[in-house]
UniProtKB/TrEMBL annotation, chains A, B:
PANTHER family referenced in this protein's UniProt entry, alphabetically: 2,5-DIAMINO-6-RIBOSYLAMINO-4(3H)-PYRIMIDINONE 5'-PHOSPHATE REDUCTASE, DIHYDROFOLATE REDUCTASE FAMILY PROTEIN (AFU_ORTHOLOGUE AFUA_8G06820)
Keywords: Hydrolase, Metal-binding, Multifunctional enzyme, NADP, Oxidoreductase, Riboflavin biosynthesis, Zinc
Species assigned in the record: Amycolatopsis xylanica
Metabolic or biological pathway: Cofactor biosynthesis; riboflavin biosynthesis; 5-amino-6-(D-ribitylamino)uracil from GTP: step 3/4; Cofactor biosynthesis; riboflavin biosynthesis; 5-amino-6-(D-ribitylamino)uracil from GTP: step 2/4
Native organism taxonomy: Bacteria, Bacillati, Actinomycetota, Actinomycetes, Pseudonocardiales
Stored NCBIfam families: eubact_ribD
Sequence similarity: In the N-terminal section; belongs to the cytidine and deoxycytidylate deaminase family. In the C-terminal section; belongs to the HTP reductase family.
Binding site for NADP(+): 154, 170, 196, 200, 225, 269-275
CDD domains reported in the protein's UniProt record: Riboflavin_deaminase-reductase
Protein's name according to its UniProt entry: Riboflavin biosynthesis protein RibD
């Protein structure tokens, strides 16, 4: 069993991140009966064809007797598009490898449908790569009905996000800042507190190294009861901005769900991050720790409802790598 | 050229750490003329023989025409012991590999003396391993006249060293705590602020997993103008304790130098660490970052004299590894 076509499907699906919500960014590769490449595709924006259909279109008659590699179990329900399991049957595919079973009770059953029609199906090829990678946010959304929230912050080793006078440009390395712009371009929404808008006046756009806007921009969400100053960069029109007049994470996430957001980045400040942490609504921490000391100034996380050490929120390190001169830590909650 | 004997000399020297100050913990290995093992040794406590002499004693006549591997350039000065370069000449060694040249102007010249007598000398074998490892603190001391200070702390990812009510047991993993006890046993002194004694009542001893005292105990140094409570664990007699009635890092380090301390661990609290950081008297950061969030409570580093972002103290990450469930970051200052 050759994992390479699935690797290709995963790489393809990465290119669709941020364009498919609330649908999953899926990748598909079709090999012909002799095992030669026949076609590939990714999920199109909502209302457009799914990955399997795109790959089958390219493969044409070569799909007959061939093998499909799909990052997610093919769907069987009629939504805005016809079910993909049926499209694979119609094309005469003889085997289907899929990485992750569909957690959605309405869509699930694709494998059963295919098996019943005599197609060989294999679940779990590179499953972890897909679950931790391109489908992570969507799988969380499918399971919980809530967007997946990554809390990203950049601090010094001693936990400061700005100096005593509020200045913070720049604590993290150029590589880390460029990476965050790349991540923003794959997301549905960026959430910040109004305090961050007042303090830093961030644009919250995804920009290239030369400052130009990347093709895709996430929704900008400012949380807080007070007004956003008229001249604030988040109101510059370069991307859509929503103002949520509540600090309640539940209300913020409900609004985001209503707008089809699946993959959300929480960028600050300490008060808002504390509220999300207290509500257990952070699904991943992405920390850029600069090897630097400040000794004073605001910290990354404000009150999270923890009074004593036994109430400490425990997480597990998922990965530690360097990002330029910074230490990049990714962590997930321990339940 | 075979690095293995030098690797063995380095491993030997590690065993002498914490027993030789203010002398360097050196390791030596002697091979005979055919390249077979002949003898090995480490620096004995002050007043005792140096590593080369210990290795030559074991090698006996086998040293004739042999090769010596030493982590530090052999000394030429008469201190409390005769010079090692002369001992190597007397034994008839024909070649000497040493990792690091002696930075001490009084002791230096060993290689020159050996070369003048017809012994082949080679500098720099595994030099970086020795400079970053067993001789790190001593080389710093030889260059600056001050002890090498490692600031060690354990914090949550959001930079807290205790919860809002002051409780802190335990933020770091059992593996990290065991490692710190092992490190303490190789050091000359541990320094804490009086506030830490009042808040946590630490014993500051090096203990095994079962709580028993390890054979070697560093000097315990409590910094602060007020009294140490009579029942404090640092006064339990299990190791020597000194009370320095000053927060000035210069005064603390001068006292330590006067007591022959070369390798010092600064363990807190925030105020004392801030004073050392402000005075640029921290030579290494050793941070154990637990994947946990508190959102309130004291932070690792207090005021370090930084008012704005351009004054931020910049460091460089030297290594990032896991320690149990924690992220262990080692960093050195950027000058």
């Amino acid at each position: 069993m050759n994992p390479e076509p699935m690797r290709r499907a995963i790489a393809l699906s990465e290119t669709a991140r941020g364009t498919t919500s609330p649908n999953p960014p899926v990748g598909a590769v079709i090999l012909d009966a002799r095992g030669e490449f026949a076609g590939e595709g990714v999920t199109q924006p909502p209302g457009g064809p799914h990955a399997e259909v795109m790959a089958l279109r390219q493969a044409g008659e070569k799909a007959l007797g061939g093998t499909a590699y799909v990052t997610l179990e093919p769907c069987v329900h009629h939504g805005r598009t016809p079910p993909c399991a049926q499209a694979l049957l119609d094309a005469g595919v003889s085997a289907v490898y899929y990485a992750v079973p569909d957690p959605n009770p309405v869509a699930a059953g694709g494998a059963k449908t295919l098996e019943a029609a005599g197609v060989e199906t294999h679940e779990g090829l590179l499953r972890e790569d897909v679950e931790r990678g391109p489908l992570r946010a969507w799988l969380h959304y499918a399971r919980t009905g809530r967007p997946h929230v990554t809390w990203k912050y950049a601090s010094t080793l001693d936990g400061r996000v700005a100096a005593a006078d509020g200045t913070s440009r720049w604590i993290s390395s150029p590589e880390s800042r460029a990476e965050v712009h790349g991540i923003r371009a794959t997301l549905d929404a960026i959430v910040v507190g109004r305090g961050t808008v007042l303090a830093d006046d961030p644009a919250l756009t995804a920009r290239a190294a030369d400052g130009s806007l990347l093709p895709r921009q996430p929704l900008r969400v400012v949380v807080g009861t007070g007004e956003i100053p008229a001249g604030a960069r988040v109101l510059d029109g370069s991307a859509e901005t929503v103002h949520v007049r509540s600090h309640d994470p539940g209300e913020v996430l409900a609004l985001l769900t209503g707008r089809g957001a699946v993959d959300v980045l929480l960028e600050g400040g300490p008060r808002l991050a504390g509220a999300f942490a207290a509500a257990k609504r952070i699904d991943r921490i992405l920390a850029y720790l600069a090897p630097a000391l400040l000794g004073s100034g605001p910290v990354a996380l404000g009150d999270a409802g923890v009074a004593t050490i036994t109430g400490m929120h425990r997480w597990a390190v998922e990965g530690v790598t360097m990002s330029g001169s910074d230490v990049r830590v990714s962590a997930t909650p321990v339940h």
